[in-house]
């Protein structure tokens, strides 16, 4: 016999779908099937059942091979590494729950670490812009029920957030949007003809790296001022027309992704996109939202925002929180040799950071906490496998619109495996012992 | 004026945070007391004397104190931070935050500086005889009051984000500048003697920019008004005057909208 668990939360992307159905064996030890999830989400659940899964911590030997160690030994190594360092970097925090993030922050305070999450190479620039000029935003529920003008700027949800368009942005029939996609106008701004662009009513193929100029042109068009003949590769007639389409909507939502947050200008692109949203509110209702990637990167920003006042790149080395992206961000710290130990949890910098940064992780004591074997675990001294959050343990996660959703445990982890939170609690206790508190 | 000379003898393992290298911290102190001032490497506290050879003595007040720092300071942050008077001379390259939140006095660097030099500067003079990094004279993160006054002169090139949220003072760059000049500025003056790239004056409300060389891509919000002759502070020639940023808010004076001004030289 099997049983079906309904209303399961998907711990993959920031869309945090909450309608999955998971079939598990009667004893709750085996996960058999996943329904309603996208291909990536389903794979995340099914991968927890991999037969070759690593279930015990490992330490790198002199000859480069791995040796299995106990959780106690891993706790001891991690605690000593962090307590010995003058300025350790504690990076990741995006694929775990808020409970683990909170314990991790306590460790960071105890050892004077720099706490940084994946926003550092993702939407951190959006957070800078929000701090500079504020943000008029909304929830995905409002988008579904009200938005009739959808603008995707530098993002491709068809691949990165596969169910976003069907659940919230293009296709759903909501309270005031009963006609579904036929009642909505979709504009995509992207230098590439993406799969998302193929679904759009209008695709403006902006010249690479000229988003700032095009956004500025929208502001000029809203005010009815004169534009040059061509801005960012787009003829002015098309800009005036798109501006009119946005102004004529009842509710405009702008979604943006890494195409603008990590291309030339970074935070300034978001800054001016927020200004565009603010301008639109002179004519209609408009909101803007970052397409957050990891399922709980928003949550780590929430936890640190609440604890320290800053959402990422928080330097606790001198006992109070300092924040300045460009200095306290992971890649700057690594490449400039500002940190002397690296702790990674719930992220894979080995795959996503520039090679020059990854080499620096390899060059110093490093520990990776991750259910999977990843490029990061390959450059670390100790790899601690843990239970999957949202599959084998629950906990709080924040959706991309800052709505907290409690994830659910659907299956038992392999015998004797720790969760992120349990492991961190042990490390914290050991650090307190070392420091004689 | 009394002079204190610091010569770096030990390089820090990581980076040295030395906001105490400022006339305000040195004033009225003996050499041994200066050596006892606190500096940080990561979470560890150290004495300034652990890293620097110190000689000479300080004046009674910051205004009467001159500090000369010698050696490779490319791993030393915060030199001259928040200084209110006196003089600092750095003979070598320095790291981030040179003269950040400076309120007075004169700071000269005979070398290059990294990012955030002159962040949130209020007054005084910051002279960099070399290149400057990004965020020269910019606002601190989230602050809408950037540089308020004083003068920054860079003889070499400057990085991106010069004078973000600037609303007073002057920045002169002898060479080229990277993207984003005077973004969000509400006042002040920036002179770029070399070339600028793009996003010059984006979201600018008020203030002046002079570019003597080329601008790769002009912001769509800047419109050409007229050609004008300029002759001031050694800048001479015929300039094309643009006004903008049309997409941004602007106040009115006597019914006239006040725009930011961008002058580009067309003839020396």
UniProtKB/TrEMBL annotation, chain A:
Listed GO CC annotations: membrane
Domain Molybdopterin oxidoreductase: 53-416
Source organism, top-level taxon: Archaea
CDD domains: MopB_FmdB-FwdB
Swiss-Prot/TrEMBL keywords: Oxidoreductase
Family annotation (Pfam families): Molybdopterin (PF00384)
A Gene Ontology biological process term: respiratory electron transport chain
GO MF, one example: formylmethanofuran dehydrogenase activity
NCBIfam families linked to this entry: one_C_dehyd_B
Protein name in the entry: Formylmethanofuran dehydrogenase subunit B
Originating species: Methanoculleus formosensis
Automatic annotation (TrEMBL), chain B:
Top-level EC class: oxidoreductase
EC number: 1.2.7.12
Gene Ontology terms for molecular function: formylmethanofuran dehydrogenase activity; transition metal ion binding
Domain of life per record: Archaea
Pathway: One-carbon metabolism; methanogenesis from CO(2); 5,10-methenyl-5,6,7,8-tetrahydromethanopterin from CO(2): step 1/3
One Gene Ontology biological process: methanogenesis
Catalytic activity: N-formylmethanofuran + 2 oxidized [2Fe-2S]-[ferredoxin] + H2O = methanofuran + 2 reduced [2Fe-2S]-[ferredoxin] + CO2 + H(+)
Protein name: formylmethanofuran dehydrogenase
Source organism per UniProt: Methanoculleus formosensis
């Amino acid at each position: 016999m099997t049983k079906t668990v309904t209303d399961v939360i998907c711990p993959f992307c920031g869309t945090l779908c909450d309608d999955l159905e998971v079939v598990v064996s009667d004893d709750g030890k085996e996960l058999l099937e996943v329904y309603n999830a996208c291909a990536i989400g389903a794979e995340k659940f099914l991968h927890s059942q991999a037969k070759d899964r690593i279930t015990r911590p490992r330490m790198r030997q002199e000859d480069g091979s791995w040796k299995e160690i106990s959780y106690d030994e891993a706790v001891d190594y991690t605690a000593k590494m962090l307590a010995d360092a003058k300025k350790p970097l504690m990076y990741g925090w995006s694929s775990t729950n808020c409970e683990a993030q909170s314990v991790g922050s306590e460790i960071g305070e105890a050892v004077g670490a720099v706490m940084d999450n994946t926003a550092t190479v993702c939407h951190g620039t959006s957070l800078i812009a929000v701090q500079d000029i504020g943000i008029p935003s909304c929830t995905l529920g409002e988008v579904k029920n009200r938005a009739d003008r959808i603008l995707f700027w530098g993002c491709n949800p068809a691949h990165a957030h596969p169910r976003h368009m069907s659940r919230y942005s293009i296709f759903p029939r909501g309270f005031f949007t009963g006609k579904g996609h036929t009642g909505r106008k979709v504009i995509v701004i992207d230098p590439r003809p993406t799969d998302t662009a193929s679904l759009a009513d209008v695709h403006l193929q902006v010249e690479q790296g000229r988003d700032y100029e095009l956004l500025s042109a929208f502001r000029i068009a809203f005010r009815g001022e004169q534009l040059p003949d061509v801005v960012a590769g787009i003829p002015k007639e098309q800009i005036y027309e798109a501006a009119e389409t946005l102004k004529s909507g009842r509710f405009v939502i702008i979604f943006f992704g890494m195409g603008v947050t990590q291309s030339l200008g970074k935070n300034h692109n978001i800054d001016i996109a927020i200004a565009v949203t603010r301008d639109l509110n002179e004519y209609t209702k408009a909101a803007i939202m970052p397409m957050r990637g990891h399922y709980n990167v928003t949550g780590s920003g929430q936890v640190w925002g609440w604890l320290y006042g800053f959402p990422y790149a928080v330097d606790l080395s001198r006992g109070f929180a300092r924040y300045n992206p460009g200095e306290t961000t992971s890649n700057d710290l690594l490449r400039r040799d500002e940190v002397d130990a690296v702790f990674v949890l719930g992220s894979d910098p080995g795959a996503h950071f520039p090679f020059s940064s990854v080499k620096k992780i390899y060059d110093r004591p490093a520990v990776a906490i991750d259910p999977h074997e990843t490029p990061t675990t390959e450059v670390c001294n100790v790899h601690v496998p843990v239970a999957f959050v949202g599959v084998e343990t629950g906990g709080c996660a924040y959706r991309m619109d800052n709505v907290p959703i409690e994830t659910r445990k659907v299956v038992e982890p392999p015998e004797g495996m720790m969760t992120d939170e349990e492991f961190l609690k042990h490390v914290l206790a050991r650090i307190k012992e070392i420091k004689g508190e | 004026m009394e002079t204190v000379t610091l010569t770096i003898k030990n390089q820090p393992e990581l980076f040295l945070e030395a906001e105490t290298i400022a006339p305000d911290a040195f004033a009225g102190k003996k050499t041994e007391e200066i050596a006892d001032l606190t500096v940080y490497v990561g979470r560890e506290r150290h004495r300034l004397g652990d890293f620097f050879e110190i000689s000479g003595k300080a004046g009674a007040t910051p205004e009467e104190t001159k500090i000369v720092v010698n050696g490779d300071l490319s791993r030393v942050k915060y030199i001259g931070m928040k200084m209110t008077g006196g003089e600092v001379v750095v003979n070598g390259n320095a790291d981030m935050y040179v003269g950040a939140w400076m309120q007075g006095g004169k700071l000269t660097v005979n070398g290059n500086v990294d990012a955030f030099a002159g962040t949130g500067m209020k007054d005084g003079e910051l002279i960099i005889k070399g290149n400057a990094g990004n965020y020269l004279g910019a606002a601190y993160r989230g602050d809408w009051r950037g540089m308020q006054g004083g003068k920054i002169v860079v003889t070499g090139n400057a990085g991106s984000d010069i004078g973000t949220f600037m609303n007073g003072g002057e920045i002169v760059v002898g060479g080229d500048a990277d993207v984003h000049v005077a973004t969000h500025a509400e006042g002040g003056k920036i002179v770029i003697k070399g070339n600028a790239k793009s996003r010059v004056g984006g979201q600018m409300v008020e203030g002046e920019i002079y570019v003597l060389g080329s601008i790769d891509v002009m912001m769509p919000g800047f419109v050409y008004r007229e050609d004008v002759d300029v002759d001031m502070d050694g800048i001479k020639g015929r300039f094309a005057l643009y006004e903008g940023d049309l997409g941004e808010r602007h106040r009115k004076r006597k019914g006239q909208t006040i725009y930011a001004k961008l002058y580009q030289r067309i003839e020396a």
